[in-house]
Design brief:
Layout (H helix, E strand, L loop, with lengths): L11 H19 L12 E6 L5 H12 L3 E6 L9 H11 L5 E6 L4 H8 L3 E7 L5 H15 L6 E5 L6 H12 L3 E5 L15 E3 L2 H4 L5 E4 L15 H8 L3 H4 L7 E3 L12 H4 L6 H20 L11
Helix pairs in contact: 1-5, 1-11, 2-11, 3-4, 5-6, 5-11
The structure holds phosphoric acid mono(formamide)ester (CP).
Length: 310
């Protein structure tokens, strides 16, 4: 079975093929009959151990628009953490013979572990601070549609990089497609070894945003900071929040992105989030198209010659 566990392991050709396929899926969601039959009769299970608004609902809609039967497993995020319980849950669902399992889990490597155990395709919908591949794909599609390309664009990824699987997947993907990637964050919110990941490091927004084509803000993940450094919101917004003044350092036609959920007034000012440069709603729309493309690429036998793994 074929899986999408991360952007790491995908070739630039794989990525471009998925983006091209996603481009063709956009029309399905924009017509009144929002339905294809590619995955008719297939069963998709969404297994989300962590909270989600965008990812879970867009995977559900994507499956339904492809004609699949979609089941959302409701798992509380408190009692089940990792290890055997995850595997037990997955093996129970596996016995019901799904064709594809979409998993979000708080532990890095959870999706890869599952992929070794179950007899169906697995898609990583976010595993700890590791990867969130469909988010990076939908971000790339949004950038490509706004700017006509990804190659040689300057993309500034700003904020809580340390806890961000979105940042990790984006850094890998954007490098694969030839973008110039920057991270902008206080050193306390950067992972060790960030400079070896293919990102130029900046600590001040004014420096990191200079002449950027894309400004990608990250959520300050305070729930993952227990026992470590938790910045004060007011101070964080003042130095690292994106407001109109800081945005002026980027190119005049720069786009503003945020994967959501947003903390307005923490990492991004409301008027910038809702402003003319924001493509945050487009990101959400592209999320459905990208997830349709990924599931079609994994499950449609006519596409099985195409490369998607990772
Ligand atoms: N961007 C993202 O993954 O959002 P959710 O946590 O709401 O799915």
């Amino acid at each position: 079975h074929r899986h999408l566990l991360g952007i790491k392991g995908l070739s630039p050709q794989d990525i471009v093929q998925l983006l091209d396929l996603a481009e063709s899926e956009i029309a399905v969601s924009r017509q009144s009959e929002k339905k294809k039959a590619t995955l008719r009769g297939r069963t998709q299970i969404n297994l989300f151990f962590e909270a989600s608004t965008r990812t879970q609902s867009s995977f559900e809609l994507a499956g339904k628009r492809l004609g699949a039967d979609v089941m959302n497993m409701s798992v509380g995020n408190s009692s089940v953490k990792k290890g055997e319980t995850l595997i037990d849950t997955a093996m129970t669902l596996n016995a019901m013979r799904p064709d594809i399992l979409i998993i979000r889990h708080g532990s890095a490597g959870a999706a890869a572990l599952l992929a070794q155990k179950v007899g169906c395709s697995v898609v990583n919908a976010g595993d700890g601070a590791h990867e969130h591949p469909t988010q990076a794909l939908l971000d790339a599609l949004t950038i490509r549609r706004a700017k006509g390309k990804v190659e040689r664009l300057t993309v500034a990824i700003c904020g809580d990089v340390l806890h961000s699987r979105v940042a990790r997947s984006n850094i890998i993907l954007l490098n694969a497609l030839g973008a110039r990637v920057r991270v902008v964050a206080p050193s306390t919110l950067l992972p060790a070894g960030i400079s070896h990941m293919g990102a130029e490091v900046f600590h001040k927004m004014e420096d990191g945003l200079k002449d950027a084509d894309v400004v990608m803000m990250l959520r300050l993940q305070r729930e993952r900071m227990a026992g470590s450094f938790v910045p004060s919101v007011r101070e964080y917004f003042r130095y690292h929040g994106l407001d109109r003044e800081k945005l002026k350092y980027a190119k005049p036609d720069a786009i503003v992105m945020h994967p959501g959920p947003m903390n307005r007034g923490v990492e991004i000012a409301s008027d910038v989030a809702d402003g003319v440069q924001s493509v945050i709603q487009e990101q959400v729309e592209m999320g459905v198209a990208v997830r349709m493309a990924v599931m079609e690429a994994l499950l449609d036998p006519r596409r099985n010659a195409e490369g998607v793994a990772g």
